[in-house]
Amino acid sequence: MTAEEDGRQGQRARRRGQGELEALVLSVLGDARTPVTASWVQERLDGGLSYSTVITILTRLHGKKAVSRTGSGRPVLWRPVATDEAGLTALRMRRLLDKQDDRDAVLSSFVSALSSHDEELLRALLNESAPPAPGTPPAEPES
Q: Which residue, of 35, 67, 73, 133, is most buried by count of CB atoms within 10 Å of its CB?
C-alpha cells in the first residue's frame, strides 16, 4: 500500500454498527418533548445520516417496539418507548423471554448466572418496585 492509499484509508469515516445508530436515534428522540418527524430527527443528527437511513433505523426501532409512530398518514410522527440503550436492551431481553415456553427456567438460569453485585442490585430494584404486602404499615420517610 502506498503512503497516499494509507492516508485515504485513515480519512475514511468509521462505519457505525446498527446498534450504535439505533442508540443515537433514540437519544435524539429522547430529547423531543412531543412526537416528531424523521426530518426533525435527521436535522439533529448533524447531517451525519441520510433521510432514508433515518427512516430505516426508525422502522427497525418500531419493529423492536422501541419507538411508536402515528398512523400511516403523512407526516408520520415518531416518539420513543425506550429512550436509551439500556431501555432498548431491556426491550430485547423481554422479547427473548416472551419467546420462551418455560419462563421460570429462563429466569432461574439468568439469576443464577448473575454476579453477586448484580444479584444484590436486582434484589434492591425488585424490592423498590414491589407493592407492599396487604396489612403492611406504610414505610416511614427517611430523614
A: 67
